[in-house]
């Protein structure tokens, strides 16, 4: 799993076909391991922030279950529970949260990435 250490998944084009294949194989293995009750918690002791610019039940649930299954602790920051982009700049918030969390999942309105 270390192949993707500090790799940001912003868009599909950020990955080579070989990396996409590796991700799909990893996902299959993790799902099979969970089904067979032999799952290893690769994220034990890690903290993940789930930031939602808009509510999304399926996305939130899937990330929370996956993180929990892998041993991570999650913090949910929903659209009404944070001041990101309003009273706090996105850049400053990202810098602070980046020091506090091992991973950040972001669900926003658009697909525009720099």
UniProtKB/TrEMBL annotation:
Coiled coil: none
Matching InterPro entries: Asp/Orn_carbamoyltranf_P-bd, Asp/Orn_carbamoylTrfase, Asp/Orn_carbamoylTrfase_sf, Orn/put_carbamltrans
Enzyme class label: transferase
PANTHER family: ORNITHINE CARBAMOYLTRANSFERASE SUBUNIT F-RELATED (PTHR45753:SF4), ORNITHINE CARBAMOYLTRANSFERASE, MITOCHONDRIAL (PTHR45753)
Keyword Transferase on entry: yes
GO CC term (a single one): cytoplasm
Keywords carried by this UniProt record: Transferase
A molecular function (GO) term: amino acid binding
The enzyme's E.C. designation: 2.1.3.3
Organism for this UniProt entry: Raoultella terrigena (Klebsiella terrigena)
UniProt-listed GO biological process terms: citrulline biosynthetic process; L-arginine biosynthetic process via ornithine
Protein name: Ornithine carbamoyltransferase chain F
Keyword Transferase in record: yes
